Every structure is written in structure tokens, then in C-alpha cells.
Amino acid sequence: MSEEKKPAADGKILGFSVMSAGNALNALLAYFRFAQITSIFGANWKTDALAVAMVFPQLLRDVVAHSFGSAFIPIYSRVIEDRGHEQGIKFVNRVIGWIFLAGLGLIAGLWHFSGSLVHLISPSGTTELLELASFLL
């Protein structure tokens, strides 16, 4: 009778703890960034435009970070375990290539539709705010 190797639960808990701590640190640094921006430039329509412009990039970062952590890491572990280290490296290279191409597509989409996206985020914003936020996006 052969024994199956089961992944250590401690390793997964540590991995998720590190990812959670990283996400919490990211949120804290984002707060400090905007607090510093408003302390230097004041709370006016220009800093509002920056906050509006940052919504979609932060949203996309969150989506990629969470999907990367929940989907990529288990699949990568399985590839390493089943096919070996060399196939794991090929898998990582392929994923990075697809992320790069998807990122280019997202950047092009954000650039092309920036006016409409900014208007969705701030429908009652002034013309100046919407134009500046669209430019910053």
C-alpha cells in the first residue's frame, strides 16, 4: 500500500497569512499616500480627480492579486509536484507572458475608455474634475 503525500497545512496557512499581511500593508500605504497628497496639495478638486483616477488601477490590482493568490499558487504547486521544476518554470514564464499581454490590453482599454470610466465613477463631477481624472487615468 502506498502512502499519498499530503501538503502541509502549516505551509498553506503561512502563505495565506503572508498574502493577507501584504494586502493589509498595501491598504495602509494607500491611505498614507492619499493622506500625504492631501496634506501637501490640500483637499480640492485636483486631489479629488486623482482619487477618481486611481479607482480602476487599484481595482484591477486587487483583482489580479487575489486571483493570482487563489488560483496561480495551487496550480503552480501541482505542476511542480506532478511534472517537475523545469515544467514549473515553463508554466511561470507562460503565465507571466499572458499577464503581460492582458496588462497591455487593459492599459489600452483604460486609455481608450478613460472618459466614460471616469464619468461612471464620478457622475456628478465638474467638467474640470472629469477631464483631469481622465487625463490622469
Characterization of this structure:
- There is one protein chain.
- With 137 residues, this protein is mainly alpha-helical.
- The protein has six helices and no strands.
- The protein has a domain at 43-136.
- 85% of the residues lie in helices and 0% in strands.
- It is elongated.
- The model has no long low-confidence stretch (mean pLDDT 82).
What can be said about this structure in brief?
With 137 residues, the chain is mostly helical. 85% of the residues lie in helices and 0% in strands. It starts with 8 loop residues before the first helix and ends with a helix.
What's the arrangement of secondary structure elements?
Layout: H1 9-41, H2 45-53, H3 55-83, H4 85-112, H5 114-121, H6 127-136
Helix pairs in contact: 2-6, 3-4, 5-6
Assign an overall shape: elongated
**Main sheet specs:** none
Low-confidence stretches: none
Terminus-to-terminus distance: 60 Å
Give, in order, the helices and strands: HHHHHH
